[in-house]
Amino acid sequence: MRPLLLELTGFRSYDRARVDWSDHDLVVIGGATGSGKTSLLDAIAFALFGRTPESIRTGDLLRLGDEHGEVRLEFALREERWRVTRRFGPGAPEPAQALERLAPGDEVTVAVGEGPVDERIGELLGMSFEAFTSTVLLAQGRFARFLRAQPAERDAILRELFGVASLEGVRAAALAARDASRARASALAEE
Protein backbone atom coordinates (compact mmCIF):
# COMPACT_ATOMS: atom_id res chain seq x y z
CA MET A 1 0.00 0.00 0.00
CA ARG A 2 1.41 3.36 -1.06
CA PRO A 3 -0.26 6.57 0.17
CA LEU A 4 -0.81 9.01 -2.69
CA LEU A 5 -3.09 11.81 -1.48
CA LEU A 6 -4.30 12.72 2.00
CA GLU A 7 -7.05 15.30 2.53
CA LEU A 8 -8.08 16.48 6.00
CA THR A 9 -10.98 18.62 7.15
CA GLY A 10 -11.44 19.41 10.83
CA PHE A 11 -8.98 16.71 11.87
CA ARG A 12 -7.06 17.55 15.05
CA SER A 13 -5.38 20.94 14.48
CA TYR A 14 -5.99 20.93 10.72
CA ASP A 15 -8.82 23.08 9.38
CA ARG A 16 -8.18 21.95 5.81
CA ALA A 17 -5.08 20.28 4.43
CA ARG A 18 -4.13 18.44 1.27
CA VAL A 19 -0.90 16.44 1.11
CA ASP A 20 -0.01 15.01 -2.30
CA TRP A 21 2.69 12.32 -2.27
CA SER A 22 1.85 10.91 -5.71
CA ASP A 23 4.92 12.41 -7.46
CA HIS A 24 7.39 11.31 -4.79
CA ASP A 25 9.15 7.97 -4.37
CA LEU A 26 10.43 8.79 -0.88
CA VAL A 27 8.77 11.07 1.64
CA VAL A 28 10.11 12.46 4.90
CA ILE A 29 7.70 14.14 7.27
CA GLY A 30 9.67 16.66 9.30
CA GLY A 31 9.03 19.72 11.41
CA ALA A 32 9.16 21.23 14.84
CA THR A 33 7.42 19.68 17.83
CA GLY A 34 3.70 20.36 17.59
CA SER A 35 3.69 21.07 13.85
CA GLY A 36 1.31 18.21 13.03
CA LYS A 37 3.60 15.37 11.89
CA THR A 38 1.96 12.76 14.11
CA SER A 39 -1.48 14.04 13.11
CA LEU A 40 -0.70 13.21 9.47
CA LEU A 41 0.29 9.66 10.41
CA ASP A 42 -2.76 9.37 12.66
CA ALA A 43 -4.90 10.51 9.73
CA ILE A 44 -3.55 7.68 7.56
CA ALA A 45 -4.33 5.14 10.28
CA PHE A 46 -7.77 6.69 10.82
CA ALA A 47 -8.58 6.61 7.10
CA LEU A 48 -7.61 2.96 6.83
CA PHE A 49 -8.92 1.60 10.14
CA GLY A 50 -11.26 4.22 11.64
CA ARG A 51 -9.00 4.74 14.65
CA THR A 52 -5.57 6.02 15.63
CA PRO A 53 -2.69 4.34 17.47
CA GLU A 54 -3.55 6.27 20.64
CA SER A 55 -7.09 4.80 20.57
CA ILE A 56 -8.68 8.08 21.60
CA ARG A 57 -12.37 8.82 21.09
CA THR A 58 -13.35 10.00 17.62
CA GLY A 59 -14.72 13.20 19.17
CA ASP A 60 -11.22 14.03 20.37
CA LEU A 61 -10.01 14.03 16.76
CA LEU A 62 -12.44 16.79 15.82
CA ARG A 63 -10.88 20.23 15.54
CA LEU A 64 -12.13 22.55 18.25
CA GLY A 65 -15.26 24.37 17.12
CA ASP A 66 -15.96 22.19 14.10
CA GLU A 67 -19.25 20.32 13.58
CA HIS A 68 -17.66 17.45 11.65
CA GLY A 69 -14.35 16.25 10.30
CA GLU A 70 -13.26 14.18 7.35
CA VAL A 71 -10.19 12.21 6.37
CA ARG A 72 -9.80 11.02 2.80
CA LEU A 73 -6.88 8.88 1.65
CA GLU A 74 -6.07 7.81 -1.88
CA PHE A 75 -3.62 4.95 -2.11
CA ALA A 76 -2.16 2.57 -4.64
CA LEU A 77 -2.25 -1.16 -4.10
CA ARG A 78 -1.36 -3.87 -6.62
CA GLU A 79 -1.69 -1.65 -9.70
CA GLU A 80 -5.05 -0.27 -8.50
CA ARG A 81 -5.90 3.09 -7.00
CA TRP A 82 -8.31 3.31 -4.05
CA ARG A 83 -9.92 6.09 -2.00
CA VAL A 84 -11.21 5.64 1.54
CA THR A 85 -13.24 8.36 3.24
CA ARG A 86 -14.08 8.56 6.95
CA ARG A 87 -16.35 11.31 8.27
CA PHE A 88 -16.95 11.90 11.95
CA GLY A 89 -18.62 14.26 14.38
CA PRO A 90 -22.24 15.17 15.08
CA GLY A 91 -22.72 17.02 11.76
CA ALA A 92 -20.93 14.53 9.54
CA PRO A 93 -22.70 13.94 6.22
CA GLU A 94 -23.54 10.46 5.02
CA PRO A 95 -22.08 8.13 4.11
CA ALA A 96 -19.79 8.33 7.12
CA GLN A 97 -17.42 5.70 5.64
CA ALA A 98 -16.88 4.77 2.01
CA LEU A 99 -14.31 2.87 -0.02
CA GLU A 100 -13.97 3.43 -3.75
CA ARG A 101 -11.85 1.82 -6.42
CA LEU A 102 -10.63 4.51 -8.79
CA ALA A 103 -10.36 3.29 -12.36
CA PRO A 104 -9.28 5.66 -15.14
CA GLY A 105 -12.34 7.81 -15.85
CA ASP A 106 -14.54 5.86 -13.48
CA GLU A 107 -15.13 5.57 -9.72
CA VAL A 108 -16.69 2.42 -8.32
CA THR A 109 -17.98 2.41 -4.74
CA VAL A 110 -16.91 -0.89 -3.26
CA ALA A 111 -18.14 -0.56 0.32
CA VAL A 112 -20.22 1.85 2.40
CA GLY A 113 -20.54 1.82 6.18
CA GLU A 114 -18.11 1.07 8.97
CA GLY A 115 -18.31 -2.74 8.94
CA PRO A 116 -18.09 -3.27 5.17
CA VAL A 117 -15.32 -0.68 4.75
CA ASP A 118 -13.31 -2.13 7.65
CA GLU A 119 -13.70 -5.65 6.28
CA ARG A 120 -12.67 -4.73 2.74
CA ILE A 121 -9.69 -2.65 3.92
CA GLY A 122 -8.54 -5.63 6.00
CA GLU A 123 -8.80 -7.88 2.94
CA LEU A 124 -6.93 -5.39 0.74
CA LEU A 125 -4.10 -4.73 3.17
CA GLY A 126 -3.93 -8.27 4.51
CA MET A 127 -3.33 -7.08 8.04
CA SER A 128 -5.17 -5.90 11.11
CA PHE A 129 -4.92 -2.51 12.79
CA GLU A 130 -2.65 -4.06 15.43
CA ALA A 131 -0.24 -5.44 12.83
CA PHE A 132 -0.28 -2.15 10.90
CA THR A 133 0.45 -0.01 13.95
CA SER A 134 3.09 -2.43 15.26
CA THR A 135 5.07 -2.86 12.07
CA VAL A 136 4.18 -0.33 9.37
CA LEU A 137 3.16 2.75 11.33
CA LEU A 138 4.95 2.83 14.65
CA ALA A 139 3.68 5.61 16.86
CA GLN A 140 6.13 7.25 19.19
CA GLY A 141 7.38 4.65 21.67
CA ARG A 142 5.56 1.74 19.98
CA PHE A 143 8.71 0.21 18.44
CA ALA A 144 10.20 -0.34 21.87
CA ARG A 145 6.89 -1.87 22.98
CA PHE A 146 6.96 -4.21 19.96
CA LEU A 147 10.51 -5.27 20.85
CA ARG A 148 9.54 -5.86 24.50
CA ALA A 149 6.42 -7.85 23.57
CA GLN A 150 6.26 -11.50 24.49
CA PRO A 151 7.67 -13.76 21.75
CA ALA A 152 4.24 -15.24 21.01
CA GLU A 153 2.71 -11.77 20.52
CA ARG A 154 5.57 -10.62 18.25
CA ASP A 155 5.36 -13.90 16.35
CA ALA A 156 1.61 -13.46 15.76
CA ILE A 157 2.09 -9.92 14.44
CA LEU A 158 4.90 -10.98 12.11
CA ARG A 159 2.97 -14.03 10.86
CA GLU A 160 0.04 -11.78 9.95
CA LEU A 161 2.31 -9.17 8.37
CA PHE A 162 4.09 -11.70 6.16
CA GLY A 163 0.88 -13.49 5.22
CA VAL A 164 1.51 -16.80 6.89
CA ALA A 165 -1.15 -16.50 9.60
CA SER A 166 -3.68 -18.16 7.30
CA LEU A 167 -1.35 -21.15 6.98
CA GLU A 168 -1.49 -21.93 10.70
CA GLY A 169 -4.61 -24.07 10.31
CA VAL A 170 -2.99 -26.09 7.53
CA ARG A 171 0.15 -26.50 9.64
CA ALA A 172 -1.85 -27.69 12.65
CA ALA A 173 -3.79 -30.18 10.51
CA ALA A 174 -0.56 -31.52 9.00
CA LEU A 175 1.00 -31.96 12.44
CA ALA A 176 -2.13 -33.73 13.71
CA ALA A 177 -2.11 -36.05 10.67
CA ARG A 178 1.59 -36.77 11.22
CA ASP A 179 1.04 -37.58 14.89
CA ALA A 180 -1.93 -39.84 14.05
CA SER A 181 0.14 -41.67 11.42
CA ARG A 182 2.99 -42.17 13.88
CA ALA A 183 0.58 -43.55 16.48
CA ARG A 184 -0.95 -45.90 13.92
CA ALA A 185 2.51 -47.03 12.75
CA SER A 186 3.49 -47.73 16.35
CA ALA A 187 0.33 -49.74 16.95
CA LEU A 188 0.91 -51.77 13.78
CA ALA A 189 4.55 -52.37 14.73
CA GLU A 190 3.49 -53.69 18.12
CA GLU A 191 1.04 -56.13 16.47
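The above is record 1. Record 2 follows with the same two-line structure.
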Amino acid sequence: ITTRIEAKYDGYAQEYDTLVKVDVDLNSVRASASAGSLAKGRTTTLNLTLPAGVSAQNAAITYRAAGAVSVNKAGKITAKSAGNGKVYVRVAMGGKSITRTVVVKVGDITGANTVKAKKSIKLKVAGISGKAKWSLDKKGKKLAKISSSGKLTAKKAGKVKVTAKVGKITMTKTIKIKK
Protein backbone atom coordinates (compact mmCIF):
# COMPACT_ATOMS: atom_id res chain seq x y z
CA ILE A 1 0.00 0.00 0.00
CA THR A 2 1.37 3.38 -0.97
CA THR A 3 0.36 6.40 1.12
CA ARG A 4 1.04 10.01 0.10
CA ILE A 5 1.24 12.65 2.80
CA GLU A 6 1.34 16.34 1.91
CA ALA A 7 1.99 19.22 4.30
CA LYS A 8 -0.63 21.98 4.11
CA TYR A 9 1.66 24.84 5.05
CA ASP A 10 4.34 24.35 2.36
CA GLY A 11 2.99 21.61 0.04
CA TYR A 12 5.87 19.26 0.73
CA ALA A 13 4.82 15.69 -0.16
CA GLN A 14 6.22 12.35 0.92
CA GLU A 15 5.19 8.83 -0.14
CA TYR A 16 5.41 5.79 2.12
CA ASP A 17 5.20 2.18 0.97
CA THR A 18 3.91 -0.46 3.34
CA LEU A 19 3.68 -4.16 2.63
CA VAL A 20 0.48 -5.72 3.99
CA LYS A 21 -0.05 -9.46 4.09
CA VAL A 22 -3.68 -10.54 4.13
CA ASP A 23 -4.09 -14.01 5.54
CA VAL A 24 -7.34 -15.61 4.49
CA ASP A 25 -8.71 -18.74 6.14
CA LEU A 26 -10.51 -20.69 3.42
CA ASN A 27 -11.45 -23.59 5.72
CA SER A 28 -14.91 -22.13 6.29
CA VAL A 29 -15.81 -22.32 2.57
CA ARG A 30 -19.03 -24.35 2.23
CA ALA A 31 -20.65 -25.70 -0.92
CA SER A 32 -24.02 -27.41 -1.38
CA ALA A 33 -26.62 -27.97 -4.08
CA SER A 34 -30.12 -26.53 -3.80
CA ALA A 35 -31.37 -30.06 -4.51
CA GLY A 36 -29.39 -33.16 -3.53
CA SER A 37 -31.39 -35.40 -5.88
CA LEU A 38 -32.59 -34.66 -9.41
CA ALA A 39 -34.36 -36.34 -12.29
CA LYS A 40 -32.32 -36.72 -15.48
CA GLY A 41 -32.43 -33.50 -17.50
CA ARG A 42 -33.26 -31.28 -14.52
CA THR A 43 -31.04 -28.55 -13.06
CA THR A 44 -30.17 -27.13 -9.67
CA THR A 45 -27.91 -24.36 -8.47
CA LEU A 46 -24.77 -24.59 -6.42
CA ASN A 47 -24.79 -22.63 -3.16
CA LEU A 48 -21.40 -21.32 -2.06
CA THR A 49 -20.76 -19.76 1.35
CA LEU A 50 -17.50 -17.79 1.51
CA PRO A 51 -15.72 -16.41 4.60
CA ALA A 52 -15.56 -12.68 5.32
CA GLY A 53 -13.21 -10.89 2.96
CA VAL A 54 -13.60 -13.47 0.19
CA SER A 55 -15.90 -12.85 -2.74
CA ALA A 56 -16.33 -13.89 -6.35
CA GLN A 57 -14.62 -10.61 -7.30
CA ASN A 58 -11.38 -11.16 -5.35
CA ALA A 59 -11.07 -14.96 -5.45
CA ALA A 60 -10.73 -17.45 -8.28
CA ILE A 61 -13.70 -19.84 -8.18
CA THR A 62 -13.78 -22.78 -10.57
CA TYR A 63 -16.15 -25.73 -11.00
CA ARG A 64 -15.55 -29.22 -12.36
CA ALA A 65 -18.04 -32.08 -12.62
CA ALA A 66 -17.71 -35.85 -12.80
CA GLY A 67 -20.16 -38.70 -13.14
CA ALA A 68 -23.87 -38.17 -13.73
CA VAL A 69 -23.84 -34.34 -13.77
CA SER A 70 -22.32 -31.37 -15.57
CA VAL A 71 -21.73 -27.84 -14.24
CA ASN A 72 -21.31 -24.49 -15.99
CA LYS A 73 -19.16 -21.47 -15.05
CA ALA A 74 -21.99 -19.99 -12.97
CA GLY A 75 -22.44 -23.13 -10.85
CA LYS A 76 -25.61 -24.43 -12.54
CA ILE A 77 -25.70 -28.23 -12.22
CA THR A 78 -27.43 -30.35 -14.89
CA ALA A 79 -28.36 -34.02 -14.39
CA LYS A 80 -27.09 -36.05 -17.38
CA SER A 81 -27.66 -39.71 -16.50
CA ALA A 82 -28.76 -41.99 -13.68
CA GLY A 83 -26.28 -42.39 -10.83
CA ASN A 84 -24.15 -40.20 -8.62
CA GLY A 85 -22.51 -37.03 -9.84
CA LYS A 86 -19.90 -34.91 -8.12
CA VAL A 87 -19.17 -31.22 -8.49
CA TYR A 88 -15.78 -30.01 -7.32
CA VAL A 89 -15.64 -26.34 -6.29
CA ARG A 90 -12.18 -24.79 -6.01
CA VAL A 91 -11.72 -21.43 -4.31
CA ALA A 92 -8.27 -19.81 -4.56
CA MET A 93 -7.09 -16.55 -3.02
CA GLY A 94 -3.82 -15.16 -1.69
CA GLY A 95 -1.78 -18.16 -2.76
CA LYS A 96 -4.10 -20.57 -0.93
CA SER A 97 -6.84 -22.79 -2.29
CA ILE A 98 -9.45 -25.24 -1.06
CA THR A 99 -11.70 -27.69 -2.88
CA ARG A 100 -15.16 -28.73 -1.74
CA THR A 101 -17.16 -31.63 -3.20
CA VAL A 102 -20.93 -31.70 -3.69
CA VAL A 103 -22.67 -35.02 -4.45
CA VAL A 104 -25.90 -35.02 -6.47
CA LYS A 105 -27.95 -38.17 -7.05
CA VAL A 106 -29.62 -38.44 -10.46
CA GLY A 107 -32.69 -40.59 -11.02
CA ASP A 108 -33.97 -41.92 -14.33
CA ILE A 109 -36.43 -44.52 -15.59
CA THR A 110 -34.64 -47.46 -17.18
CA GLY A 111 -36.06 -50.12 -19.46
CA ALA A 112 -37.02 -50.48 -23.11
CA ASN A 113 -38.28 -47.48 -25.09
CA THR A 114 -40.58 -49.63 -27.23
CA VAL A 115 -42.95 -52.54 -26.69
CA LYS A 116 -45.32 -54.47 -28.94
CA ALA A 117 -49.06 -54.31 -28.32
CA LYS A 118 -50.29 -57.04 -25.95
CA LYS A 119 -46.74 -57.45 -24.54
CA SER A 120 -45.14 -56.22 -21.32
CA ILE A 121 -41.88 -54.56 -20.28
CA LYS A 122 -40.38 -53.95 -16.86
CA LEU A 123 -39.42 -50.37 -15.96
CA LYS A 124 -37.21 -49.44 -13.02
CA VAL A 125 -35.93 -46.31 -11.37
CA ALA A 126 -32.13 -46.06 -11.30
CA GLY A 127 -29.84 -43.61 -9.52
CA ILE A 128 -32.01 -42.86 -6.48
CA SER A 129 -33.51 -45.13 -3.89
CA GLY A 130 -37.01 -45.32 -2.55
CA LYS A 131 -40.41 -46.68 -3.52
CA ALA A 132 -41.57 -45.45 -6.92
CA LYS A 133 -45.18 -44.46 -7.53
CA TRP A 134 -45.93 -45.27 -11.19
CA SER A 135 -48.56 -43.59 -13.37
CA LEU A 136 -49.52 -42.97 -17.01
CA ASP A 137 -50.74 -39.79 -18.68
CA LYS A 138 -54.44 -39.54 -19.62
CA LYS A 139 -53.86 -40.76 -23.19
CA GLY A 140 -51.53 -43.49 -21.95
CA LYS A 141 -54.23 -45.00 -19.73
CA LYS A 142 -56.19 -45.87 -22.89
CA LEU A 143 -53.15 -47.52 -24.53
CA ALA A 144 -51.50 -49.36 -21.61
CA LYS A 145 -51.54 -50.06 -17.92
CA ILE A 146 -48.74 -49.98 -15.38
CA SER A 147 -48.48 -51.91 -12.13
CA SER A 148 -47.21 -50.59 -8.82
CA SER A 149 -43.96 -52.47 -9.48
CA GLY A 150 -43.34 -50.77 -12.87
CA LYS A 151 -44.57 -53.50 -15.22
CA LEU A 152 -46.06 -51.79 -18.30
CA THR A 153 -48.56 -53.88 -20.28
CA ALA A 154 -49.38 -52.47 -23.74
CA LYS A 155 -52.94 -52.70 -25.06
CA LYS A 156 -52.71 -50.99 -28.45
CA ALA A 157 -50.32 -48.93 -30.62
CA GLY A 158 -49.37 -45.35 -29.75
CA LYS A 159 -47.15 -43.39 -27.37
CA VAL A 160 -47.50 -43.30 -23.61
CA LYS A 161 -45.83 -41.05 -21.08
CA VAL A 162 -44.81 -42.96 -17.96
CA THR A 163 -44.17 -41.09 -14.71
CA ALA A 164 -42.32 -42.43 -11.68
CA LYS A 165 -42.30 -40.37 -8.52
CA VAL A 166 -39.84 -41.14 -5.72
CA GLY A 167 -40.21 -38.71 -2.84
CA LYS A 168 -40.07 -35.22 -4.40
CA ILE A 169 -38.34 -36.43 -7.58
CA THR A 170 -40.55 -36.90 -10.65
CA MET A 171 -39.13 -38.74 -13.66
CA THR A 172 -40.80 -39.28 -17.04
CA LYS A 173 -40.19 -41.53 -20.01
CA THR A 174 -42.03 -41.90 -23.31
CA ILE A 175 -42.68 -45.46 -24.48
CA LYS A 176 -43.68 -46.26 -28.04
CA ILE A 177 -46.16 -49.12 -28.43
CA LYS A 178 -45.88 -50.88 -31.79
CA LYS A 179 -48.51 -53.05 -33.50
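Helices lie at 138-143.
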